[in-house]
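User: Could you go from structure to sequence for me? I need the amino acid at each position, not a summary. Structure tokens:
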């Protein structure tokens, strides 16, 4: 994991789940970690437990991107560079398309897509100037196909693929790498924090998450993919096979997927 040694690594959604583990494992690999989320008390706790001392807590709300250029300037001023951006923060969904009001769709898209892209655009000039960098965005298996109770969530993740595949091609000349990660069922609180049709939190740990891949293993696989400069990585158990089945055997895919539990 020498790829991360002495690198400045900025992680959104770092207060729990995949983001927390990214902070822990990248710090263990020698990175200087910038931890961002809304919950700064959790960030402070995590930051104080990390090996090394040159880490930084920076409050950030993906729903309000007006100050992202200022935040990027703060990180660059502190370290003199930004080597990696992990766009991990986001919000899931547990409601049908028909029952979900448009304002909930818009909020999910604002956080998962526009907030994500806005931070990348704030960081990109620094990476272009230094002629190096690596941007990692956390999509989902739901970014490869739609699924029950995930219409807005899946749409936001599909949108990330279009943006970051384009960015990958455009920024190759600047030695900037892009990795799109597509986790499947991972044991995190994503279902608890998901939005329901009223825009409130779902508040339930789904069976799919409870029995999913341990988050430590997910992040270990992700960091190995980043160090290998993979353009895309699928992470999970047997559920990730659905991506290949859809591509190779679409009729079989639709028969299988309609019988899968949404929770």
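Assistant: Here is the amino acid at each position, in order:
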């Amino acid at each position: 994991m020498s790829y991360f040694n002495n690198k400045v690594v900025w992680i959104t959604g770092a207060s729990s789940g995949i983001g927390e583990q990214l902070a822990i494992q990248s710090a263990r690999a020698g990175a200087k970690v910038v931890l961002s989320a809304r919950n700064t008390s959790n960030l402070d706790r995590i930051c104080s437990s990390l090996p090394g001392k040159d880490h930084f807590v920076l409050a950030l709300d993906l729903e309000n991107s007006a100050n992202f250029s200022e935040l990027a300037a703060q990180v660059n001023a502190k370290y003199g560079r930004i080597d990696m951006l992990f766009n991990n923060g986001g919000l899931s969904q547990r409601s049908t398309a028909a029952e979900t009001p448009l304002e909930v769709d818009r909020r999910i898209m604002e956080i998962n897509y526009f907030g994500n892209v806005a931070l990348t655009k704030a960081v990109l000039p620094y990476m272009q100037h230094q002629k190096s960098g690596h941007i990692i965005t956390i999509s989902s298996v739901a970014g490869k196909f739609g699924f029950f109770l995930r219409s807005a969530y899946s749409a936001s993740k599909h949108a990330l693929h279009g943006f970051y595949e384009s960015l990958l091609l455009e920024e190759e000349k600047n030695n900037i790498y892009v990795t799109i990660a597509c986790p499947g069922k991972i044991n995190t609180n994503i279902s608890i924090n998901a939005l329901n049709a009223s825009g409130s939190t779902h508040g339930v740990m789904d069976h799919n998450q409870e029995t999913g891949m341990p988050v430590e293993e997910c992040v270990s696989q992700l960091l190995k993919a980043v160090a290998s400069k993979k353009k895309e990585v699928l992470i999970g158990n047997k559920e990730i096979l659905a991506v290949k089945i859809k591509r190779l055997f679409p009729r079989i895919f639709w028969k299988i997927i309609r019988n899968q539990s949404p929770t």
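One structural detail worth keeping in mind: The chain has a mean pLDDT of 97.
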